[in-house]
Task: inverse folding
């Protein structure tokens, strides 16, 4: 099981983090510091798997972003690399060659996509087309809802919300 997933820039800025285990904010901050130091200090020639403080990490760099997952000791590292690659491919297809700025300005969509790919630290759906089709349907529904609300007054919006329309 993936315990948490971090996306960070080459400068060490966290662009996305998702925790599937319960840790205090103090523990999370300590882990993030340790992982950033370990990942940024590694040569590109080294393995994409490493351990820090007894935790096993699997990571990969795509362009200017590091995707790092902390996994259980018994998990298969290669499967975790494939899950990371699957997530990157879904992001690429959704954003059209995803970059760091896409994650900064559309972080809510990146989290939503991650939630559609991983559930509780496990791969939810391996079919990229089905995942993207579902996300596209939700985008269309959200746009329709926004368009319907734009044409009405605040009082009409509140009345519709109360009625459940």
Result:
């Amino acid at each position: 099981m993936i315990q948490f997933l971090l996306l960070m820039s080459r400068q060490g800025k966290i662009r996305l983090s998702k925790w599937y285990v319960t840790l205090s904010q103090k523990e999370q901050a300590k882990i993030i510091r340790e992982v950033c130091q370990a990942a940024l200090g590694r040569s590109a020639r080294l393995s994409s798997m490493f351990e820090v403080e007894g935790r096993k990490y699997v990571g990969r760099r795509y362009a200017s972003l590091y995707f790092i997952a902390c996994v259980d000791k018994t998990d298969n590292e290669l499967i975790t690399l494939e899950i990371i690659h699957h997530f990157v491919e879904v992001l690429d297809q959704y954003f059209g060659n995803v970059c760091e700025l896409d994650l900064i300005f559309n972080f809510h969509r990146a989290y939503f996509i991650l939630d559609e790919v991983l559930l509780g630290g496990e791969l939810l759906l391996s079919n990229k087309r089905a995942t993207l089709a579902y996300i596209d349907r939700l985008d269309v529904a959200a746009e329709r809802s926004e368009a319907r609300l734009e044409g009405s007054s605040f009082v009409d919006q509140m009345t519709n919300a109360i009625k459940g329309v």
About this structure: The chain has one domain: 2-148. The chain has a mean pLDDT of 89. The domain at 2-148 is CATH 3.30.450.60 (Beta-Lactamase).
